[in-house]
Structure formats: C-alpha cells, structure tokens
Amino acid sequence: MILGGIQKVTLLDFPGKVACTVFTVGCNMRCPFCHNPGLVNAIGPTMPEEEFWEFLEGRKNLLDGVCITGGEPLVHDDIEEFIVRIRSMGYEVKLDTNGSFPDKLKSILDKGLVEYVAMDIKNTIERYAMTVGVPGFDTEAIKRSIRIIGESGIDHEFRTTVVGQLHRSEDFEKIAELIKGSDKYFLQAFNDTGDLVSDNGKDGKQETRYEAPVRSELDKMLENARRVIPGAKIRGEE
To answer: What percent of the chain shows pLDDT beyond 90?
Structure first.
C-alpha cells in the first residue's frame, strides 16, 4: 500500500467509534473540487507502511477502528490484504470509496471485512463525467457499486459534496433516486481549503473558483433529495 499519512484520532469519521483515519495515495478520478491533490496525483511525501503498523500496535487499547480513505483506496490491488491485517490487530474497519471498483468492493463486503462503507455520489449520471473530471467516464461501475452496497446488509451511507458551480437543486431528486432505499444520505457543502486538484491555472490559481452553494440553495437541494429519501440530511446537522 502507498500511504499518504494518518489522522491519529477521529470521533466523527466512523459512526459510534473512536478511530484513526489512514489516507491512501492515488485516485482514478480528477474531481476539480477535491481538496487532496497530493493524494490524487501521487505527489509529495508518503508514509512508510511500517510506521502505520507500529502506530496501530501502540493504539490497541485506545482506538476501536480504522477509517480507510484516499485518494481512492480500491485503486490498490492489495487493499484486501491491507484490511485483513488491520482486522487481525483487533480493529473494526470503515471504508470510503468512490464506487469505481465494484468487483473489489463486492469481494470485501462478501467476506465481511468492513463494518461500515461510505460511498460518494458525485452527481446525476448525466453530469458524472463533468463532475469527476474524466471525459467519457463509465458510470456503470457506479451503478453496480450502489447495488452491491445496498444488497450487502452492511451499515453504510451515501454522500454528495455539493459545489455551487457543479450541482443544481433540481437534480437532487434524480441523484437520490440512484440510491433509493438507503436511509443515510448526506449533503456536505464544499469547503475550499485553498489546495484543490483544479489549482493548476496560471500562477497556481484555479481557472474556475469553486464555492459552496448559498444556504437557501442547499436547503432546496435537501428538500428535493428528501422527496426520495426522507432521512436525507446536511452533514454536520445530524
């Protein structure tokens, strides 16, 4: 595994657990609003894997679980072995994914290797390629991953990072239809960290400045999503 670092403790990322978060390097998407360009583009320093195992060894009585995020963890061929080793140390596992690798996801879920899955739903199917920054992106894998998660019986959530320039309130009923039947769908407003994948214009500045939608627009998005998923929420207002 190629690791970008760890957040040593989180009370938010893994519902009901005290956990750490490990960041994997590499992603097949190029979402222009992504705030982890170093992980996506595999640039910058990495964390020796042995350092991660030593950290977990020293936290056995302090942490309940490990959140695996990225980048996109499932780009790695050894992700399953990585999870198995974490579990062998007594930790529960939460996996974050963009849903691009349904076969790997199914294998992990069928074997009961994670307790929780969070999948990003980037936009409507028609607007997916634009949103993930990959022309001609094949969304069939996304649809398969949604079905796999829904049929797995494993605790899960779906979520959409909402960007004013990329998302329209009228689309959120259609987005929610993709995951109809789920009871956990979160809208999380985009936050510009100042270091995005799209920070590649002249002088390192974005050619398009991305912003969160205004609150009234976010409320409309939530209202439309709730027509399909009544329990949909805005992240941070659970």
So the answer is: 81
Read off the CATH number of the domain in which 12 is found. 3.20.20.70
Q: Which domain holds residue 33?
A: 3-234
Q: Check pLDDT > 70 for residue 44.
A: no
Residue 45 pLDDT class (50, 70, 90 cuts): low
* Domain count within the chain: 1
| DSSP H or E stretch at residue 188 | strand 185-189
Alpha-carbon distance of 65 to 94, in angstroms, equals 7
| Tokens 């205004």 belong to residue | 214
CA distances to 3, 63, 108 from 19, rounded to whole Å, are 17, 5, 20
Q: What is the dihedral of CA 28, 44, 35, 211, to 10 degrees?
A: -110
What is the reported pLDDT for 191? 83
More reliable by pLDDT, 199 or 229: 229
Task: Write the CA distances from 161 to 33, 145, 166, integer angstroms.
Answer: 9, 18, 10
pTM: 0.91
Rounded-to-integer distance, Cα 99 and Cα 147, Å: 10
